[in-house]
Write a sequence for this structure.
């Protein structure tokens, strides 16, 4: 990393606005410099302001966000992508930073920029994958505008239906399906797979009307389209309404399956992830519906309580310990 860029990145991360202002004034060319990954100053500043794209959300400090604003005001390209096509807006979308996303869009950031060469790999897609439908307020217009995105946003799905099939628009932008650290999916993009994937995106974003419409079209409430059933993803996001709807419509609370990143959930159940994420609403719902908290997963040899204890999910630990009393 060039000396000026290194100094500017450090100043942005440390929220040293006076130092950053001086560097931008003395060396305006720093806005064009990139590191070995192709990341520029704005990219680094946005990563810092999001806790390095932290999930759950890390709000960053006012000074770190002030650094982003200084860099934008100095003329940085808000759509500049790194070697993987990742832009500052992707960082805001994946991390769920509405205000940061709004500021980048106002500065001219493209909402249709696609990361990792994947059609549909937009900032909004990353937000919706991680159950942050609220990001659509600033990441507009919707891109890609396909069945999956519409389901996740609770929009009308009728325009994607053509008789017994789906319209071509339903299938657009589906090359992106998860961040790159997830396993590879050799997807078919057939009608059933597209419906089932859309159901999992609707569930994690708490869109019960979308789920009803998709099931009417043939989506399977117990399908594991990619690394998790709809119930699992609803529990990940603690979307109690969606989880309740799925259970009411036949979802199996004790269905074993592999989910999440490689080796995360192996022969595990929704209760494991609900417990790990301290998703108290879904833990309570699953117990009320007869889910078995003693099921042992296939990778770590833990039950739901063990997962909660390991991750420091204190509320879930308290609830699950009471089941053993």
């Amino acid at each position: 990393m060039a000396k000026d860029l290194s100094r500017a990145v450090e100043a942005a991360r440390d929220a040293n606005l006076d130092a950053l202002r001086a560097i931008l004034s003395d060396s305006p060319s720093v806005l064009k410099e990139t590191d070995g990954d192709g990341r520029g100053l704005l990219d680094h500043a946005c990563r810092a302001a999001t806790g390095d794209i932290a999930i759950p959300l890390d709000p960053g400090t006012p000074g770190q966000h002030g650094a982003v604003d200084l860099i934008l005001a100095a003329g940085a390209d808000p759509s500049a992508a790194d070697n993987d096509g990742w832009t500052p807006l992707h960082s805001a979308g994946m991390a769920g930073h509405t205000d940061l996303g709004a500021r980048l869009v106002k500065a001219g950031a493209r909402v249709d920029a696609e990361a990792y060469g994947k059609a549909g790999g937009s900032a909004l897609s990353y937000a919706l994958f991680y159950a942050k439908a609220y990001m659509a307020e600033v990441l507009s217009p919707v891109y890609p505008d396909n069945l999956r995105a519409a389901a996740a946003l609770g929009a009308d799905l009728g325009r994607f239906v053509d008789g017994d099939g789906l319209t071509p628009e339903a299938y657009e932008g589906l090359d992106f399906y998860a961040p790159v650290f997830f396993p590879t999916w050799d997807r078919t993009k057939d009608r059933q797979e597209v419906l089932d994937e859309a159901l999992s995106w609707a569930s994690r974003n708490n869109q019960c009307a979308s789920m009803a419409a998709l099931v009417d079209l043939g989506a399977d409430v117990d399908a594991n389209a990619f690394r998790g059933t709809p119930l699992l993803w609803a529990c990940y996001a603690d979307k109690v309404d969606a989880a309740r709807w799925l259970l009411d419509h036949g979802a199996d609370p004790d269905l074993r399956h592999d989910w999440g990143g490689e080796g995360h959930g192996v022969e595990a159940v929704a209760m494991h992830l609900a417990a790990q994420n301290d998703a108290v609403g879904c833990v309570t719902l699953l117990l009320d519906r007869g889910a078995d908290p003693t099921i042992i997963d296939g990778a770590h040899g833990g039950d739901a309580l063990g997962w909660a204890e390991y991750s420091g999910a204190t509320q879930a630990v308290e609830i699950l310990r009471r089941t053993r009393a």
Remarks:
- The chain is about 45% helix and 5% strand.
- The chain has a mean pLDDT of 96.
